[in-house]
Design goal:
By secondary structure, the chain is mostly helical. The chain has 2 domains: 94 residues, no CATH class; 223 residues, MetI-like (MetI-like fold, Orthogonal Bundle), CATH 1.10.3720. 71% of the residues lie in helices and 3% in strands.
């Protein structure tokens, strides 16, 4: 297992380097290829050629591409300084760039908005995992019943309805509508350390809306894998040995059926941590996704680049965790 982890971590580092190289090239080299100078974005309104040249020198945009990329990667590990003298801007490690529009390191902006994404992801992930897997298992065991048909019908609705529909519908009913129930008025984000009860109460609506979307997918997938697993030969063997049906389902059927669930759960959590754009937009939260949208609108390229790499990091780490969990969920998986 240790050797496997080392190989996966080394592979993850290589993948992140490739992603950073491609992303950095897209944001730094491609605009120049089409005749657009990135320095113009930081030089103010109607800048003179001399001002553009000074800004380009300060940010290192006049250097060759590979030298710029080396300074970028080095800044992630050891930090970086933009400019010289009294006007120098210090960006401490891990430095994902410096937003000269907001006059703040990109890492600081991401960290300040990260609690919103973590809060959304943790609560919604627990809800959709428990409800989705439970519904899928019960539907598979009661195939063709009223419960099965009803649950799959609701799951189909959950897959079909986007978050901006269910979110706005929930807000109109429980928060801001003309005849709202006043259960969750003004559901703005409150930090967990500030007021844990208010934090959870204000996140109930986005948790439920996100969980409704993802739980539908998990229920359908769990049902399909459980139906396939319960028809395997080793399941019939376990029943022939006289094992109780509960043990046959939990120890043999469910563990094998959870393998694809673990895969998509790790990827979904990684993606959601990186960018819950629609959910934040609907409920008015300012997280990493909203930060990326604002940065795109203001053409703040360092922030867009930093958010992209940050989201990629979560997805890569989620893949490593999924590979490790495989061995504990499915006894048929072994690492040598």
């Amino acid at each position: 297992m240790i050797r496997f982890l080392i190989r996966r971590i080394v592979g993850a580092i290589v993948v992140l380097l490739v992603i950073s190289l491609v992303t950095f090239w897209l944001f730094e080299a491609v605009p120049k290829f089409f005749g657009s100078d990135p320095a113009v974005l930081y030089a103010g309104r109607s800048p003179s050629p001399a001002t553009i040249a000074a800004v380009s020198k300060k940010l290192g945009l006049d250097q060759p591409f590979w030298e710029q990329y080396w300074h970028f990667v080095k800044g992630i590990v050891a930090g970086r300084t933009f400019g010289t003298g009294q006007t120098a801007q210090v960006c401490h490690a891990p430095c994902l760039g410096y937003s000269f529009i907001n006059n703040e390191p990109v890492w600081s902006e991401i960290i300040s908005d990260l609690p919103v994404d973590i809060s959304l992801t943790i609560g919604a992930a627990i809800l959709w995992l428990v409800s989705g897997v439970s519904t899928g298992v019960l539907s598979a065991l009661r195939r063709g019943s009223i419960f099965d048909r009803g649950a799959m019908g609701i799951a189909l609705a959950g897959v079909s309805l986007p978050i901006y529909f269910t979110g706005l519908l929930a807000l109109s009913i429980f928060s801001f509508g003309p005849h709202y129930l006043q259960w969750f008025p003004n559901p703005h984000f409150v930090g967990f350390t500030d007021n844990p009860i208010q934090w959870a109460r204000n996140l109930v609506l986005p948790w439920v809306c996100l969980a409704f979307l993802y739980a539908a997918l998990y229920a359908r997938l769990t049902r399909a894998t459980m139906l396939e697993t319960m028809s395997e030969d080793y399941i019939r063997t376990a029943r022939a040995k006289g094992l109780p049906e509960r043990k046959v389902i939990t120890r043999h059927g469910l563990r094998a059926a959870l393998t694809p669930i673990v895969t998509i759960f790790g990827l979904d959590v990684g993606l959601l941590l990186g960018s819950a754009v629609l959910t934040e937009q609907v409920f008015g939260y300012v997280g990493i996704g909203k930060l990326a949208i604002i940065s795109i609108a203001t053409r703040d390229l360092p922030v867009v680049l930093g958010v992209t790499l940050f989201a990629a990091f979560f997805v890569v780490v989620a893949n490593i965790i999924v590979d490790v969990v495989y061995a504990y969920v499915d006894p048929r998986v072994t690492y040598s």
